[in-house]
Amino acid sequence: MKVLEVQNLTISFDGKNAVDGVSIDLEDSEIVGLVGESGCGKSLTAFSVLGIYPPNSKLTGKILYKGKDLLTLDEESKRKIRGNQISLIPQDPLSALNPVFTVGNQIAEVLEVHKQVSYKDALLSAKSSLEMMNIPNPSSRINDYPHQFSGGMKQRALIAMALVGQPDVLIADEPTTALDVTIQLQILEIMKNLKKQKKAILLITHDLAQVSEICDRVYVMYLGKIVEHGLTKDIFTNPKHPYTIGLLNSLPDENKKLLNPIFGQPPSINSIPLGCAFHPRCPFVFEKCKKEIPELYDITDNKHHRSRCFLEIGKK
Ligand SMILES: Nc1ncnc2c1ncn2[C@@H]1O[C@H](COP(=O)(O)OP(=O)(O)OP(=O)(O)O)[C@@H](O)[C@H]1O
Ligand SMILES: [Mg+2]
What we know:
Elements: E1 2-13, E2 16-27, E3 30-35, H1 42-49, E4 57-65, E5 68-69, H2 75-81, E6 86-89, H3 93-96, H4 103-115, H5 119-132, H6 138-141, H7 151-163, E7 169-173, H8 181-196, E8 200-204, H9 208-214, E9 217-222, E10 225-231, H10 232-237, H11 242-249, E11 297-299, E12 302-307
Parallel strand pairs: 3-8, 3-9, 6-7, 7-8
Antiparallel strand pairs: 1-2, 1-4, 4-5, 9-10, 10-12, 11-12
Helix pairs in contact: 4-5, 4-7, 5-7
This protein binds adenosine-5'-triphosphate (ATP) and magnesium ion.
């Protein structure tokens, strides 16, 4: 069943689109990856799913949770869904925890607000959620303030906070970036377990190895647009968009040496190239790419795989 449908989402600043017509579906029991270079609009997309977007931005499109458009709900209804049915592990653990409350208090509050449990029971759940995240001595650690936690522990506390309400949909925005490898692996295991419990997960990451390890499907984003999406195995074995091909070719080898980085830098949203936004960096560019914006075209014989590239419809 589809639990989340982002439909034609556009988020603009001063008329410039940072997110441009993005559509993403999530089914239950599915882990879906969202990848792309820094600044392409991943976090804006993630936060908008929770109904949070910068006050200076303009947002259009639909965000359906089990068919209900979240963007048209009043604040109270949005708040009920946020942290309860849908929760977010934010990218920046430092700014997401409140320095004046204990960690246990902040985790427990999620339950108090949403599940009408007593504070005492909520604290017990907070403790077991820290335990699940392998925080040592959780009974005493729940009384610590965020500054008493290391960076990696803060990140794990945020993950505990996102999971304690047992949401149906988890949006994880680079959840393992600040963590060392063993803990990264534990978090990937936790996500696999959530999938077994029929949850839907959107995993935003720079790490393609993680995507190939746990994602069922992948969306590739470039300068605000989805440029390719499909089953993970198809994206990895048969990438179609030149940007995806570039990303895969630029994976580091066993000696951690970057092999073939994509030429150039992504342009900023203030100077999005005409035509296909990737054309100035594309090794396959031809005249039409400089003038017209390609659609997401179906890949022949694969209804799950689409690429935003004129190569799919021939060089005419
Ligand atoms: N409040 C804001 N005002 C103006 N521009 C913004 C604002 N927030 C985000 N942007 C712009 O929107 C674009 C997308 O930002 P976003 O944070 O979604 O990128 P990202 O893909 O998450 O990048 P990263 O991988 O670095 O986390 C960027 O160009 C950014 O500068
Ligand atoms: Mg981001």
